[in-house]
């Protein structure tokens, strides 16, 4: 696992929307749409803050975070529909940024799915351990070999997760969206998209930190106070990042709480298996084996549920991208700058096959 890094300097972004109200002449309808979106966003952020800090980096929280991210991206789709802003009215810069970022998000989803699958594969090692210890004839050497295999598998690195850091760097560089001059609807859309990008980057950075065993890319984003959801975001970010950094300073094999519970069970069982069983340890073996089964099943179920939410997010990003590309083709507005990005979509999808 990577060693704890010094806290990252906050990423300060200028407020690209300081002119959104000045001279924008937003209609009551547009103001109401924007307000509804931002109020909903703030409420979603408040619900993301764990009541118990022990829930931070649990699979249940990560599942809820991904579920919330799906809801936020669905909210922006709803807003786009309500704005009645046809694709032909989109600036080419907006389209390029959207398509480029969507590919990056698809790649991040693929990396997360890959790591969840890798972690789930560790279940096979522990199933072998349980098989060799729960039968009438105990196979201690085989059980020990499987425990060693589990430890080696869990401590290995996933290159796709390491690559996420570079992808998130690119997302951070484009978080300051293009300036909007003559479109009131465009201003509303870009302001809403800014919020979606900030929260997406924040949540993805937490996932990458949890999966990689490194907090080097745990982001600290500064959101201008002009956004009504800024306070909720700042509170959530401070709470999560501070606790995650504390966890890193005291961690063992992992920072994932559910995986740590499995590791604790393995550590209790290992010396019994290693030394061989005597009458005094029979009860301890039974208890440790039962505990390992419980923790293993909980971990596997948690990973399965998280995998479903990551896949749901992938599908939301992909369908949104497909819809935009379809509208561009129908309108005959596919530019040269868009076409290469369209090809990347096919590459990203094929990676999952």
From TrEMBL:
<keyword id="KW-0472">Membrane</keyword>
<dbReference type="Pfam" id="PF05633">
    <property type="entry name" value="ROH1-like"/>
</dbReference>
<protein>
    <submittedName>
        <fullName>BPS1, chloroplastic-like</fullName>
    </submittedName>
</protein>
<feature type="transmembrane region" description="Helical">
    <location>
        <begin position="188"/>
        <end position="211"/>
    </location>
</feature>
<keyword id="KW-1133">Transmembrane helix</keyword>
<comment type="similarity">
    <text>Belongs to the ROH1 family.</text>
</comment>
<dbReference type="GO" id="GO:0016020">
    <property type="term" value="C:membrane"/>
</dbReference>
<keyword id="KW-0812">Transmembrane</keyword>
<dbReference type="InterPro" id="IPR008511">
    <property type="entry name" value="ROH1-like"/>
</dbReference>
